[in-house]
Amino acid sequence: MPLSLPKIAANHKKFYKDIYIFYFGTFIARISKGRTVREFVIFVLLLPTTLCLIWFSAFGGTAIHQFLTEGYTGVTEAVETFNYELALFKMFEGLPWTTLLSCVAMTLTIIFFVTSSDSGSLIIDIIAAGGKVDAPIPQRVFWCTAEGLVAIALLLGGGLKALQAASLATGFPFAIVLLGMGVCVWIGLRAELRESD
To answer: What does pTM read for this prediction?
Structure first.
């Protein structure tokens, strides 16, 4: 297979990792308040990771099977031409019930983007309100609207490349901060374990 997976995936991984760590890390911290470390590890780390492994194994395995056994190159052509958004639907073309699968995929994609936008807006709202959880509703609507308008402007103006470049430039220093935070959490958990013994 003439695919270079590291080259294809590198830009997306770096760009989205920064966004997910900031927004969803804060969001998960917000909704995990009062939970035990065990509950956090099981329901925030292990369960989603397991579901993602099943998802990627099923769909990735199907695409590889289509290529190796049936010679279907729709997915590989989409990936090689950097049309990642079409790859899933190209895989569905080789399966029965293509229209139904495509509708389900679009529905799940919309749910993903809406919930991601909502959690991002919640976090921006909390930060803008100085940490207040119960900020005024008009302020939350403002942040949702502003976030949507910025996304539309970036997509229409082609400015997404600049945003990706900026996030890549800030990713390395942020990674060092994250490593320091990880060490601090480890030290805190060990100290708490010693105190409980």
So the answer is: 0.63
| Under 8 Å between Cβ of 40 and 25 | no
Distance CA 140, CA 122 (A): 7
Q: What is the DSSP string of 147-183?
A: HHHHHHHHHHHTTHHHHHHHHHHHHHHHHHHHHHHHH
Beta-carbon-side half-sphere exposure of residue 25 (alpha carbons within 13 Å): 10
Q: Can you give the C-alpha Rg of the chain in angstroms?
A: 20
Neighbouring CB atoms inside 10 A of 82's CB total 9
Judged against a pLDDT cut of 60, whether residue 8 lies above it is answered with no
Q: Are 13 and 109 in contact (CB under 8 A)?
A: no
pLDDT: which is higher, 31 or 57: 57
CA 70, CA 82: separation in Å to the nearest integer? 22
